[in-house]
Amino acid sequence: MRAALELAALGYRVFPCLLNKAPACPRGFKDAVADPDAASQLFRQYPSELIGVATGSGSGIDVLDLDPDNGSDAWLEQHRHRLPATRTHRTRSGGLHLLFLHREGVRNTAGRIASGVDTRGQGGYIVWWPAAGLAVSHPEDLAQWPGWLLETLLPKPVVRPVPVETVVSGAGYAAAALQRAEALVKNAPEGTRHDQLNYQTWSLARFIPKGELSAGEIISVMTSAARHAGLDDKEIIRTVAQAVEAGQVRT
């Protein structure tokens, strides 16, 4: 109970799990809470031996789950040097849970990276094995996902080519391109929003040297569209500024 309340106070969404790792509460990780008072009530209502922690945006973490019984040791030996130092839990089966900051688009996978190498992200959970007395490495670290792993985990962005319009140049075409880019960013599926914002802004920047669109106009429209899509301001400002600059330099 004390460990569950401490985790809830740190912002982790917790819920009770049985010794077989199955949820003790009716809706599983959907019952998870990050409030100590609510956690106390939940764990008293459903007594359990283990603590589950929901992964994904709710707790702010994703997990790389390594299972040596299914072949993860060979993969880890090959890629250990490419993995950043991050909080790592030893699991009951002798495997490892490597914790990373949640990245939008990371979900649960089984064997996508390699045999015995799974992920827990949005819509998943892990057992918090340190509360059961198992070892923790790098307890103070929580790294970003390595880019080379994200290339495997994140869905590939669908970038539709801009169709050839009847009007192939001029302010009217530029305005239509701006409107279309705004809609594509606003409605981009989860996991493709950043890439769509970058590509569409870069594409629009070609109109700036011709005077058909201004940099300020593009920045304003694309920033608003990205906010509508759910991206955070820091990411939006950096991406839009870099794409506008890069899009004006074309070979």
What does this structure look like?
The protein is of the alpha+beta class. The protein has two domains: 152 residues; 77 residues, no CATH class. Helix content is 36%, strand content 16%. The chain has eight helices and nine strands. The strands form two sheets. It has a six-stranded antiparallel sheet, with helices on one face. A three-stranded antiparallel sheet has the order 1-2-8. Strand 4 and strand 5 form a beta hairpin. Helix 6 packs antiparallel against helix 7. The protein is elongated and about 65 Å long. It starts with a helix and ends with a helix. About 2% of the residues have low confidence. This is Bifunctional DNA primase/polymerase. InterPro entries: DNA_primase/pol_bifunc_N.
Q: What's the helical proportion of residues?
A: 25-40%
Rg, rounded, reads 23 Å
Number of strand elements: 9
Percent in strands: 15-25%
* Mean pLDDT rating: 90
> Low-confidence spans: pLDDT under 50, at least 5 residues?
164-168
Order of helices and strands: HEHEEHEEEEEEHHHHH
The largest beta-sheet arranges its strands as: 6-7-3-5-4-9
How many structurally independent domains? 2
Number of helices: 8
Secondary structure class reads alpha+beta
Distance between the termini: 63 Å
Quaternary status of these chains? single chain
